[in-house]
Specification:
Helix content is about 30%, strand content about 20%. By secondary structure, it is α/β, with parallel strands linked by helices. A hairpin with a 7-residue loop joins strand 5 and strand 6. It is globular and about 45 Å long. The chain starts with a strand and ends with a strand. It is an enzyme of class 3 (hydrolase). Keywords: Hydrolase.
Length: about 160
């Protein structure tokens, strides 16, 4: 299974609630560019996103390249989610893909995206940085710590 991990695009400054922050024009453009350049022709089977507005908007941009899919929302992708719990859930999803070359996209936030990339690839702390609209591709036969191979990591 290939897991694409996308941090939401640049968002507006927090005015009222962090949950309600929306993407800026730069965030929308950066996200569209990286999705088009890196994964628009990949065999995605699922798109999962955090329920926060900026992640949903980022996922909608990705969805425009995959019209047959829908965005599935989970609290497992909120910024403060536990990366180990997320990996356990991903491993269960992975069991559905055994014997196939399928991919899924996760749209989330820091610190979760950075922790997940580094944990899957067996790297310490902030070894692989994840700025806004950063997109990582990780291949994993088993979704567990130190079991993923980083294929590439691109930044907006």
């Amino acid at each position: 299974m290939t897991i694409f991990i996308l941090r939401h695009g640049q968002a507006e400054a927090q005015i009222t609630s962090d949950d309600a922050r929306q993407l800026t024009n730069k965030g929308r453009n950066d996200t569209a560019r990286i999705v088009q350049e890196r994964i628009a022709d990949m065999p995605l089977v699922q798109i999962w996103a955090s329920p926060l507005v900026r992640a949903q908007q980022t996922a909608e941009i990705a969805l425009s390249y995959f019209p047959g899919l829908k965005i599935q929302t989970t609290d497992l992708l909120v910024p403060e989610a536990n990366p180990q719990v997320l990996m356990n859930w991903l491993d269960k999803l992975n069991a559905q893909f055994i014997g196939t070359d399928r991919s899924l996209l996760l749209v989330s936030h820091q610190p979760l995206v950075g922790a997940l990339v580094n944990l899957l690839c067996g790297k310490p702390g902030d070894y692989y940085p994840m700025g806004t609209s950063s997109l990582a591709a990780i291949r994993a036969q088993v979704v567990a710590a130190d079991m993923g191979d980083l294929l590439w990591l691109d930044h907006a």
